[in-house]
Write a structure and sequence with these properties.
The chain starts with 7 loop residues before the first strand and ends with a helix. The radius of gyration is 22 Å and the shape is globular. Strand 3, helix 5 and strand 4 form a beta-alpha-beta unit. Helix 1 runs antiparallel to helix 9, helix 9 crosses helix 13 and helix 10 crosses helix 13. It has 13 helices and 12 strands. It has 2 domains: 134 residues, Aspartate Aminotransferase, domain 1, CATH 3.90.1150; 251 residues, Type I PLP-dependent aspartate aminotransferase-like (Major domain) (Aspartate Aminotransferase, domain 2), CATH 3.40.640. The strands form 3 sheets. Strands 2-8-7-6-5-3-4 form a 7-stranded mixed β-sheet, sandwiched between helices. The protein has 402 residues and is an alpha/beta fold.
């Protein structure tokens, strides 16, 4: 990238830049207020008080009780704790073969634990999605069996931005749980959602969503990396999967990341305060970008359904040009984008999310994910629109004929 050109960042689904106010809130806890919150003396209690305040802030955002919040190292750990923790707890109290439900387009932090539980003998249903990347509610309803005990469906897909009907699913599960209770059954279905990509944009009130567990992460909401949280509704069976230190009610052992937790809480506060304003700005940028791009490159395929997606996502296929080549060329010009999930960026395989949506493999390989953020500007949008069309045309001319 030329030194005199300011870089443009359009991959906010991978991570977000740290908000200045978040950094300001965190700084004292690196050096001045550095105590271990498990220590009884004043240094430790100062840190413990900061953690308590952060837990209260997170609980207010999610509309839950502070003791229903477990701090983790991020959403991957939160997802693993939710899935393995509930499965382990249920194994100790219930017999028989369990049935679990997830979707085909989940993040690997959900899919891989489900794969492992399946290998260990659990029955797992991986629900398909419609062409817009959304699970069909009727398919979901019909997939529930008498031995279904756990469901995990992501709130927003990280690649195409599709919003899943979490609230409606939660209501279906609650109705089935009531029917089971009336029949005298003690077996319940517990409902988890990975809400990492939703926090910036959607209502994450856990009572509104009717969920028992919800995962979130700091670095997707302009907070620090390496910190997240898991909401666990009171009464939900959960066994710790990380042992040794007895922190977080014995459910997540390990010294608490105080600066990260403080930063997470500050990021949550800022997100809640400015969500509506930021959503409007981001949607306008994304919509204007895609409309202009359609005029300049009429053959593009937009895989994001704007009627049912976050305002940030624009997943676009440039048929005839390799996605990796577009990414590299844009990076050399100072523009950061993605070909899919950052957690799978080292893989040259076609996106499993796009394939699950019925998109052909050759089209999937030509795809770029643009995700806009609150700091992007119209000047940046115009610069990308000036760079991208000629770049794509050049790559198409260079592509070998099949």
């Amino acid at each position: 990238m030329p030194k005199n050109i300011k870089p443009i960042y359009l991959d906010h689904s991978a991570t977000t830049p740290l908000d200045k106010e978040v950094l300001k809130a965190m700084l004292p806890y690196f050096s001045q207020k550095f105590g271990n919150p498990s220590s009884l003396y004043s240094y430790g209690q100062q840190a413990a008080a900061a953690v308590d305040r952060a837990r209260q802030q997170a609980a207010e955002f999610l509309n839950c009780q502070p003791d229903e919040i477990i701090f983790t190292s991020g959403a991957t750990e939160a997802d693993n704790l939710a899935i393995f923790g509930v499965a382990s707890a249920l194994k100790k109290t219930s017999g028989g073969k369990f049935h679990l439900i997830t979707s085909a387009i989940e993040h690997p932090a959900v899919l891989e634990p489900f794969n492992q539980l399946e290998e260990q003998g659990a029955e797992v249903s991986y629900l398909p999605v419609k062409k817009n990347g959304v699970v069909d509610l009727e398919v979901f309803r019909k997939s529930i069996k008498d031995n279904t005990v756990f469901v995990s469906i992501m709130y927003v897909n990280n690649e195409v931005g599709s919003i899943q009907p979490i609230r409606e699913m939660g209501k279906i599960i609650e109705k089935i749980n009531r029917e089971r209770a009336r029949r005298g059954s003690r077996r319940k279905i517990y409902f988890h959602t990975d809400a990492v990509q939703a926090l910036n944009f959607l209502n994450c009130d856990v009572k509104y969503l009717h969920v028992d567990l919800l995962s979130l992460s700091g670095h997707k909401i302009y907070g620090p990396k390496g910190v997240g949280a898991l909401f666990v509704k009171s009464g939900t069976p959960l066994a710790g999967v990380q042992l040794g230190g007895h922190q977080e009610k014995n459910l997540r052992s390990g010294t608490l990341n105080v600066p990260g937790i403080v930063g997470l809480a500050e990021a949550i506060k800022i997100t809640a305060k400015h969500r509506e304003k930021n959503n409007k700005k981001i949607a306008e940028l994304r919509n204007e970008f895609v409309s202009s791009l359609r005029r300049r490159l009429p053959g593009i395929i937009v895989n994001t359904d704007f009627k049912n997606a976050t305002p940030a996502h624009a997943n676009i296929s440039f048929v005839g040009a390799e996605g990796e080549a577009i990414l590299i060329a844009l990076d050399l010009a100072g523009v950061a984008v993605s070909t899919g999930s950052a957690c799978a960026s080292a893989s040259l395989k076609a996106s499993s999310v796009l394939l699950a949506m019925g998109i052909k493999e050759e089209v999937a390989h030509s795809t770029i994910r643009f995700t806009f953020g609150k700091n992007n500007s119209r000047v940046e949008r115009r610069r990308v629109l000036k760079l991208l069309p000629p770049l794509v045309r050049r790559l198409k001319r260079m592509a070998p004929e099949l």
